[in-house]
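User
Take a look at the entry that follows and flag anything odd:
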Amino acid sequence: MKFTKQQWQWIFYDWANSGYGILVVTAVLPVYFKAVAQDAGVSAANSTALWGYANSLGTLVISLLAPLLGALADYPRFKRRWLNLFTWTGILLTFALALVPPQQWRALLGIYVLSVIGYSGGNLFYDSFLTDVADDQQMDLVSSTGYGMGYLGGVAAFIIFLAAQLSNGFGGLLSSYGVARFSFVITAVWWVVFAWPLLRHGHQRFSVTAVRNPLTDSLRRLMTTFRHVRQYRQVTWFLVAYFFYIDGVDTIFTMATAIGKDLGVNTTMLMVVLLVVQLIAFPFSLLYGWLARRTSSRTAVLTGICVYLFICLYALKLDTLFDFWFLAVLIGTSQGGLQALSRSYFGQLIPKEASSEFFGFYNILGKFSAILGPVVVGLVTQLTGKSTIGVASLAVLFTIGLVVFLAVPQSSK
């Protein structure tokens, strides 16, 4: 399949903001935060828990607003405006992370929370653009390619950071904390450069009829959707399943480096592991797209859920560096594919003219689940003193998600 210019613009937004995903959320800021928190006398278990709580808080505001924001974006030419607003918020606040003095760990967490709002809000409108750039037959491939290219973009940004890390701050020009702050600058610049085509030229094909008062009309449409939810049985059941299983996916992603530090894995090795995971994720995201085309989106999603359920159970014996590597590779094989095909599966089920509204519900459940998961891991970790048991507790969420997804009414998608 040959992608159109608009599809490439959409795909490269994933490339653009993946630097935030790997450098800020996963690789650098968790380690940097734990270091500055330790300097301030915060214990390892408590700093891990605080990181989980911060991720939960960061998604709460956008979760509450997602359906309304989505409904507002469905009017003609509104979707790109909202995409720009939240994307620029995320970019500027990511740059602000580099300006926080190392001893101000509370301020660091606060700015991170606000940057998550920008990042998550931008993703809401980016996801809803999928129905504008691809038809039902193209969605699995376009979505999985977006995730795959996102991983490559993340690797490219990560390599720039790794060069600074392994060269001791470019031969001493940067301190260890300076290298971390340098990564936040890289992330912001990377995001601007590669998101610009979609931010400037994104074209909204589908929309609801323009009205004089979009806010009032959006609220009315939301109430209508709630009242007629029984008309969307497949959508409703899928969203319930998605709420539970994507919770585990997001939580493992955001807590991975903090857990690695608790196991005694050194920072350099953590960076190498994350780089390998990103490289593995690229071809496997495309492989999941191929699997969906050869079988169905449903089969591919079920495969990904089962892989993650095994990851949680294996975490109970997580003890050595080999175990950590083994789980990291497994995560790399399924993380992108499961998220990409969940997005395209949902996009095939919903009415296209109201895609942002429905992706608002998709995002609110995804974000609310992201609040639940880190809190569960944080509480179990604090109660047991072992972050590996905290990760294993996520098996409950994957099991519920698997059972509910099996109950989703069958379709040809």
Q: What stands out?
A: Residues 44-73 form the longest helix (30 residues).
